[in-house]
Amino acid sequence: MRGVQSAVMAVTSDDARAQGERDARARAGSEPDGAPDDATLTVFQTAAWIPPAYREAYLEGAASVLKRASVGE
Q: For residue 50, what is the DSSP state?
């Protein structure tokens, strides 16, 4: 048990952050230009639950927050 504990403790927070940075860079590089990002996908998934009378205002607000020209349908 002691060997397992020391092996687990050998990974530092710097190592974990470095691994996360590599993962984020790899994911960003794998998305083609113009592909929707996570925020845009979340906006459209949420818009599906908003009543039609309020959906356009929601999408316009989301576009301004995401600094996009338009996120509309």
A: S
